[in-house]
Amino acid sequence: MKKTVLPILLAAIWIGVSEFVRNSFLLYGYWSDHYQKLGMIFPEQPVNGAVWGIWSLCFAVFIYFLARKFSLIQTTVLSWFVGFVFMWLVLGNLGVLPFGMLPIAIPLSILEAFLASLIIKKLFREGI
Fold first, then answer.
1. Tell me, what's the pLDDT at 90?
2. In a 3-state reduction of DSSP, which class is residue 16?
C-alpha cells in the first residue's frame, strides 16, 4: 500500500503546488489580462481549485502507471506530452490560452512532470 499510495499522494501534492504557484503567482497576469480581453474573469473560485486538485491526483496516478513500465526520462516525456501538450491544444483551440506565457510555462511544466516522475520512481522503487 505504501509503495502505491504514498508516491501518488506526494506527486499529486507536488503537482498541485506547482500548478498553483505557476498559475496563481508567476503567470497570473497573463491569465487575468487574457480573460479580461475575452470579457471573462479568470476562474479562481474554490470549486476551480478542487477540480485542479482532482486533475493533479489523476495526473499523478497516470505517472505512476507510466513509471512502472518506462525509464525516468521516458515517463517524464510521456506524462508531459499527455498532461500538458494535449491540455494546451484544447485550451488554444478554445481561445482561452494566453500564448505569451508558453515560454515560461513550458519549462516549468516539464520540471513539474520530471519531479512528479522522480518522486514516484524513487518512492516506488524504495518502497517507503
1. 96
2. helix
